[in-house]
């Protein structure tokens, strides 16, 4: 897969890479995408408390998880993730367009040469003000990030799993200068834990239960005559068959998150299988 100036060696990528990533085979991946960082760290639950398995191969990623700041990423996490020798894309988010501009400018200045590009996590802008995710917001956020990066860095815009709306959001990303799309992020859900009544948990659903929705989103994007951007498919990828399904509906590459969380090393194993059994898809 070509992403502007970058060619990915494999169609399997790791999404939401653990900061302590270690083990064999990750050098075969197409790329590593980091967990999302914000300009300032956001306190919250550590991953082992905030991520729950709610059904078979299906996770709930709680909304109140801790988020690392950009400074720690640059000084501690990025060098560790880069040692696998594959392109690293840093996932960023911000509450509004100026925030996206600020973090992109900081990362370009402090770590520009170490980054293959940025992944723009489109989350609700100014959520406390009730603003919504619109094509215009996506275009402006993408444009702000694009403008701050060197020309050969990729800007990948990661969208929510909304089949009825994803096309408009993707067109916004394309107009804003995105290099590629990623579909999809987690689905906002509410989970009532089993047992005695407890507070409902809000968070993002991922894994097996998300796959049909994410496949539909990829298909909507891949079949739109106005959209020309390559697509990373994400949602419930556990097997080679899942990778093939995403490529069949129009993805150019895939990202694995829940599968890696449930079975560390899965993304590396899938990348190896793709290299051996689907050489054309590398
Ligand atoms: C444990 C966990 C943490 C995640 N953290 C992030 C994140 O920090 N930023 C982001 O954009 N997506 C995050 N995601 C979403 C994944 O990158 C992916 O888009 C989504 O989960 C669908 O893929 P999956 O079904 O393989 O998990 C996370 C998912 C999981 C399971």
Automatic annotation (TrEMBL):
Keyword vocabulary terms for this entry: Flavoprotein, FMN, Oxidoreductase, Pyrimidine biosynthesis
Biological or metabolic pathway of the protein: Pyrimidine metabolism; UMP biosynthesis via de novo pathway
Pfam families: DHO_dh (PF01180)
A Gene Ontology biological process term: 'de novo' pyrimidine nucleobase biosynthetic process
GO MF term list: dihydroorotate dehydrogenase activity
Cofactor(s) recorded in Swiss-Prot or TrEMBL: FMN
Cellular component aspect of the GO annotation: cytoplasm
Domain of life: Bacteria
UniProt domain Dihydroorotate dehydrogenase catalytic: residue ranges: 27-275
Keyword Flavoprotein belongs to the record: yes
Annotated InterPro entries: Aldolase_TIM (IPR013785), DHO_dehydrogenase (IPR050074), Dihydroorotate_DH_1_2 (IPR012135), Dihydroorotate_DH_cat (IPR005720)
Protein name (record): Dihydroorotate dehydrogenase catalytic domain-containing protein
